[in-house]
Write a structure and sequence with these properties.
alpha+beta, Nucleoside Triphosphate Pyrophosphohydrolase, homodimer, Arc Repressor Mutant, subunit A, DNA-binding, two-stranded antiparallel sheet
Chain lengths: ~240, ~240
DNA sequence: GTAATAGTGTCTCTAAGACACTATTAC
DNA sequence: GTAATAGTGTCTTAGAGACACTATTAC
């Protein structure tokens, strides 16, 4: 019997197949007092009820037109933030990571300037910014400790050859503040001149007047904001990779 | 009513939820006559029956313990190759990419030395190596043209700052052959001395005697094979990024 | 003036790029 | 010898790193 594609589609029903459980999780990073923080939520539902986890959940097959949209929806739901740096990190899937069965999660990472977390969400009993290291030490839901680590690794690596860290500051900011962000996300100190040379050559900032120096004492500092749609600038050489 | 996690899991059935269709696809690359080729299969089944597509398909919830395993299984099924470079590229999902409904695919990329494709697979009427550019011009199934492009982009980028191209050659090979591989995967010419300096500093090859020069004329060339488990060497600077 | 922070000048060092050179082979 | 390919020597260049220097402010 030869079957047309139309006929095939008519009788196709995904429920006849064993499929994995699919979710999207987002590691949302920001800087608070020059310290890396990650937004975590406390689960209101089984499994792993009451444990802290990354914001995330199922794809809404009617609302979400694509994966990025699904991740963006999670981000907005927890922060109100609509645009920011959002990138896919990795997809993790295995038979064991969720007690409900074979499960797969698409991990995203977002960088945003600080905002208070929104809490109008029933699937969650609390939402708050954790200092990154402290979050890592919690007993998290599922394999979210591993996911946090992967997002952190990506963040560190890309901070070395892109201008990603501009996304975690609330403009306007000084170059000293920006350097501190780079250093915190990179995990190593950067030489001041090297840093400034690079930022200048990347051409991603706009001057917006002068402001107070760090600590309130000393020479006034130039203030900057990111150029609209900060170009995805990639440098040929990476920072802080010497032995 | 308070419900324990055990009770919750007992009554949980994924079939009560709308979930996306989930697949794994693998862009398998090799070099044939110094030309980049990609392994494609002709679909035996709806949808998109008889169109060429990337090897891939559903996760086997009982056989595959995790995602990487699923990708490895696809690779082995089509090539017999069990180990090689295999890395995740990106996960693409949308409501529209598959006529059966909301679908998501985890795209992998593999690099292997040339082997004849295996064809003992019922879901497929043919399997063959296509020159990459020619494959891109075919009318492919689903959004596989986009997937091919993403895998190609990743391949090009990583060939600039890693030793990835060592994986597409059948050892032993000469440095000239290896340079040609790098150039083909990168898409730009590399200066001979720069190339040799870098390969030497990466320390990923072992000498295995002497062989004929390229074209059969001229001085004999040293032959090499990759060191076992070729280290994931990343250079601080990228090749061929000048303007 | 001093202390503190912002910002620059300039040398060194590493590794890519350019390119001419030597080495080895077949004929 | 010539032609062809393998492989090296060495200068230039770009950009990170080091670090001392100047500039501007509050006090």
């Amino acid at each position: 019997m030869v079957q047309s594609e139309q006929e095939f589609l008519k009788q196709y029903d995904i429920r006849n197949y064993d499929v994995p459980l699919t979710t999207v999780d987002v590691a949302i990073f920001t800087l608070i007092n020059s310290q890396l923080h990650v937004l975590m939520v406390e689960r209101a539902e089984h499994p792993h009820k009451q444990r802290w986890s990354l914001p995330g959940g199922f794809i809404d097959l009617t609302q979400d037109t694509n994966l990025q949209q699904a991740a963006l929806r999670k981000l907005k739901q927890k922060t109100g933030v609509k645009t920011s740096h959002l990138e896919q990190v990795e997809t993790i899937g295995s038979a064991k990571r969720d007690p409900r069965g074979w499960s797969l999660t698409v991990l995203y990472m977002a960088l945003i300037p600080f905002v208070e977390p929104l809490k109008d969400d029933l699937s969650v009993t609390d939402a708050k910014w954790w200092p990154f290291e402290k979050a890592l030490k919690q007993r998290l839901a599922f394999d979210h400790k591993v996911l946090l680590g992967q997002a952190r690794d990506r963040l560190r690596a890309k901070s070395g050859y892109t201008v990603l860290p501009v996304h975690v500051l609330t403009p306007p900011f000084t170059l000293t503040q920006l350097q501190q962000s780079f250093e915190e996300l990179l995990g190593v100190a950067i030489e001041k001149k090297s840093f400034r040379r690079r930022i200048q050559s990347a051409d991603v900032l706009v001057e917006v007047g002068e402001g107070l120096p760090e600590g309130g004492r000393g020479r006034k500092a130039m203030l900057y904001k990111p150029k609209p749609g900060v170009p995805q600038h990639a440098f040929v050489r990476a920072f802080g990779v010497d032995e």
